[in-house]
Each structure stands twice: as C-alpha cells, then as structure tokens.
Amino acid sequence: MKNNLQFDFIADKEKHTLTIKREFLAGRQLVWDAYTKSELLDKWFAPKPMTTKTKSMDFSEGGHWIYAMVEPSGTEYWGRMDYEKITPIEYYMGWDGFCDENGTLNPALPRARWDVSFLEKGENAMVESVITYNSAADLETVLQMGMEEGLISTMERLDELLVTLNG
C-alpha cells in the first residue's frame, strides 16, 4: 500500500541543516507518543533490518535517551539524545550524537541539534525536523553515512507501527 504522504528531505550545506518534513496517517498525539516513549521508539527507530533497544530514557527537559541501533549480526551503534526543551504534543529540541554503551559521547563523530515540531495536517500528523550540524563537513559526514536512505526506511517502519496502533 503506497500513500501519497508528504516527505521532504532538504540538505542545506550553507546552513549545515537537514530539514525533514514527513506526514503520517495518524493523529498528532499518537505520533508524539511514537517519538517520545521508549517502548514505541524501540519498535521503529532504526532502518531495516536493524532494530532499536533503549538502555535508558528520561523524556524531560535535562533528560536523555541512550539507545542502540542493532544489526542482525548483533553489532550495536549507540546514540544519545539530550532533551533541552519540550512543549508536549507540539515540539522538542535535543542534541543527538554517537556514543558508547555508557552514553559517553564520541567527539570524533558529528553531534546535531534536533528541532522537532508536531503539526496537524487535517486528520494526519506532520512532523518537521530541522537538524543543525556544526559544519558543512559534519553534514556531509552523515549524508555519506546514509542518513537519507536510513531515514526513509525508518519512517516506513513508523508508518507500519502506526497502522497497528491505530487498530
């Protein structure tokens, strides 16, 4: 089943940003929950065939989420999101980076600011993420790592999860 849901992926190398707009066949509250609850994030927040596992999550201002994207072979890629600002069901801002399994950030890999807004688009939800990197080189690094393809696959997983949650 293919839907004509909006999906924009815009890389701005002058501003060092990625802007992703994605529409979902679900209400804003359900999509917010999928982005902010570890038991739901673990079901979709990795491109296929990887899975996600949460080590710890405190979704509050000053809190953080430590998680791993896990390959079928068992190889783990750890990440950390530090939440700075939260307006429930509307917006959150946090700093995402690569880390080890204890949450210690890897300074050799890019860290980015994520501004994530949850909007209504009729009966659907629209999520707009503006991801800001420190430099054009950092942006290029994540693009070369497959950020666009990975996000497309990850968003398709969220589509599949939302269908099951909408019942």
Structure description:
It is built from four helices and eight strands, in the order ββααββββββαα. By secondary structure, it is α+β, with helices and mostly antiparallel strands. The chain has one domain (7-166): START domain (Alpha-D-Glucose-1,6-Bisphosphate, Chain A, domain 4), CATH 3.30.530. The protein has an eight-stranded antiparallel beta sheet. Strand 7 (111-121) and strand 8 (124-133) form a beta hairpin. The longest helix has 20 residues, at 147-166. The radius of gyration is 15 Å and the shape is globular. The mean pLDDT is 94.
Question: Which key terms come to mind for this protein?
Answer:
167 residues; alpha+beta; Alpha-D-Glucose-1,6-Bisphosphate, Chain A, domain 4; 8-stranded antiparallel sheet; 4 helices; 8 strands; globular; Activator of Hsp90 ATPase homologue 1/2-like C-terminal domain-containing protein; START-like_dom_sf; ASHA1/2-like_C
